[in-house]
């Protein structure tokens, strides 16, 4: 059996440090917004090259709080992609905003920036590009459109801590960057957790207030916020893991390179890494074609881990029907949803395992 993701070896390699970190927190008696959170915030800010990092309860809350910090209100439009995890768009609708979609580039699965300017209306307040699967969106064109129209940019970098675009880190190229520490992420906790990065002092102060029910001082509330705090246990665990993140990302990149060697000359289309980008491969998503579901069944038969990210584009989700999405409206997102599959890419995956996975895929797609 080859799993899609195996976190046990990671724990075993760091067990002493992780166990000590948990014990340190338990013995301190300080569990919420304490020294571990403050230290992790400083370390993430330095890692991303920004002034501030604000720990929150999840990547989803990071997005919601960022939109709240922009005062997104009912009727305001936020431009984003229809091909992403659900929280990208649900965060917009939770604040009353209206998602306005732009189709994706079929090679990178990120926003097609050539269509971005045409999506701006007089109701547009922000652009939320997604750095999908660990590769940054093309942020220079995104920021150019934002500057031309006076729009804020929120990076949905949930899958991209450590990714870079023209030597700039994910999370440092917009007004705010949003990260997730869900266990499957390149830097994953032992539960939910998230972070917002920014170099704007005023935005940082407001985010810190919004995450504690809108209060700068306990029991004195300037506004209505959320109860969304990264806890000490998660912060302590993440601090042990953070120094290893770049090495893990390099292992993922090496695994991606091996897959590319195996798929070269076959009908399997590996993800394209744009010049100037440094992809950290939170997922390795290949395009198979119309028999994708048949391949998934075959991989399951062979006990090879796989997953589909994402089987239904967001504009076709029933709960977003009111926003006017219709089949055929964003054809590249819909095609990707039908034709792509994620293969194991995690650190610790061996070359022999990669060979087994790749041969199984190629034997299905390109039988001799």
Task: Write up this protein.
The chain has 368 residues and is an alpha/beta fold. The protein is built from eleven helices and 14 strands. The chain has two domains: 8-242, Aspartate Aminotransferase, domain 2 (3-Layer(aba) Sandwich), CATH 3.40.640.10; 244-365, Aspartate Aminotransferase, domain 1. 38% of the residues lie in helices and 14% in strands. A seven-stranded mixed β-sheet has the order 1-9-8-5-4-2-3, sandwiched between helices. The protein is globular.
Secondary-structure topology with pairs:
Layout lengths: L7 H21 L6 H14 L3 E5 L2 H11 L7 E4 L6 H8 L3 E4 L22 E4 L11 H11 L2 E5 L7 E2 L2 E2 L6 E5 L13 E5 L2 H10 L4 E3 L2 E2 L10 H10 L3 H19 L13 E2 L5 E4 L4 H10 L29 H9 E4 L7 H15 L3
Parallel strand pairs: 2-3, 2-4, 4-5, 5-8
Antiparallel strand pairs: 1-9, 6-7, 6-12, 8-9, 10-11, 13-14
Helix pairs in contact: 1-7, 2-7, 3-4, 3-6, 8-11
Total of DSSP H or I helical runs spanning 4+ residues: 11
CATH class of the largest domain: Alpha Beta
Q: How do the strands line up in the largest sheet?
A: 1-9-8-5-4-2-3
Order of helices and strands: HHEHEHEEHEEEEEHEEHHEEHHEH
The name of the CATH superfamily of the largest domain reads Type I PLP-dependent aspartate aminotransferase-like (Major domain)
Which fold name fills CATH's third level, the topology of the largest domain?
Aspartate Aminotransferase, domain 2
What's the total number of strands?
Answer: 14
Shape, principal axes of CA atoms? globular
Largest sheet, described in full? 7 strands, mixed
Measured distance between first and last alpha carbons: 25 Å
Q: Write down the overall mean pLDDT.
A: 97
Based on the coordinates given, report the CATH architecture of the largest domain: 3-Layer(aba) Sandwich
Work out the helicity level.
25-40%
Q: How many domains make up the coordinates? A: 2
- Oligomeric state of the chains present here: single chain
Unreliable parts: none
Fraction of residues in β-strands: 5-15%
Rg, rounded, reads: 21 Å
Structural category is: alpha/beta
């Amino acid at each position: 059996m080859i799993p899609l993701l195996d976190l046990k070896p990671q724990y075993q390699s760091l067990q002493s440090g992780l166990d000590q970190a948990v014990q340190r927190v338990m013995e301190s008696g300080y569990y919420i917004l304490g020294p571990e959170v403050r230290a992790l915030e400083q370390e993430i800010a330095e890692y991303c090259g920004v002034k501030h990092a604000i720990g929150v309860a999840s990547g989803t809350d990071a997005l919601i709080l960022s939109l709240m910090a922009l005062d997104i209100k009912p009727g305001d439009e936020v431009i984003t992609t229809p091909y992403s995890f659900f929280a990208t768009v649900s965060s917009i609708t939770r604040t009353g905003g209206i998602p306005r979609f732009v189709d994706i580039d079929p090679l990178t699965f990120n926003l097609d920036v050539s269509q971005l300017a045409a999506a701006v209306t007089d109701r547009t307040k922000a652009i939320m590009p997604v750095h999908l699967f660990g590769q940054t969106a093309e942020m220079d064109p995104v920021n150019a459109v934002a500057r031309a129209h006076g729009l804020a940019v929120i990076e949905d970098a949930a899958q991209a801590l450590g990714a870079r675009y023209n030597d700039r880190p994910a999370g440092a190229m917009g007004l705010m960057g949003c990260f997730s520490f869900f266990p499957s992420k390149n830097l994953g906790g032992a539960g939910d957790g998230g972070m917002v990065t920014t170099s704007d002092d005023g935005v940082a102060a407001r985010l810190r207030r919004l995450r504690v029910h809108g209060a700068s001082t306990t029991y004195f509330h300037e506004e209505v916020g959320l109860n969304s705090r990264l806890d000490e246990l998660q912060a302590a665990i993440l601090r042990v893991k953070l120094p290893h993140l770049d090495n893990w990302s390099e292992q993922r990149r090496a695994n991606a390179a091996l897959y590319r060697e195996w798929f070269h000359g076959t009908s399997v289309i590996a993800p394209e890494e744009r010049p100037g980008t440094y992809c950290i491969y939170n997922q390795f998503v290949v395009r198979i074609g119309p028999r994708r579901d048949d391949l998934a069944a075959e991989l399951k038969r062979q006990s090879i881990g796989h997953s589909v990210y994402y089987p239904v584009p967001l504009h076709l989700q029933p709960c977003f029907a009111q926003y006017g999405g219709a089949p055929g409206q964003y054809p590249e997102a819909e095609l990707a949803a039908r034709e792509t599959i994620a293969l194991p890419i995690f650190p610790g995956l061996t070359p022999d395992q990669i060979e087994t996975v790749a041969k199984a895929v190629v034997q299905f797609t390109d039988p001799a």
